[in-house]
User: Fold this.
Amino acid sequence: MTCYYYRKAYYRAFWLSPPACAVPDAHEKYSGETRFPLVFQNIHRYAFYAALIISLINTWDAIRAFHSPSGFGFGLGNVILVGNVVLLWAYTLSCHSCRHIVGGRLKHFSQHPLRYRFWTLVSKLNTRHMMLAWTTLGTLALADFYVMAVSAHWFSDLRFIG
Ligand code: FES
Assistant:
């Protein structure tokens, strides 16, 4: 909900502030994100920290999923879980808060070469944040559905090994 990209999308579509160029605001006064309820958007940095924890948990899940009762196993579920986790990391690390954390509040990049490197990497990902937002939304839903369907025995995981 606090993602900068999603804010842009739903502020225009639902909040109608701003709705579009040359279209009047649906609200009497524009207060930005200084008043209730939009003031809560300012927790975005903490939402980013929560997303880091969620990405770590998903990574652990994806690694654990290679373990089958007979040892190492590999199936379609692994492909879905690993693909989901890779995209989840790409989305999380492309976050504007992440970009600010790694490269913000510096006067001279030349004195912080490592942070500059991270900032350059995150900036490249950041240009694709919108695409990653939508893709990850889709892969999260797909991974959740697949796990739910296999757990409910609607169908079994397609196994390649193990
Ligand atoms: S800006 Fe989209 S997750 Fe941070």
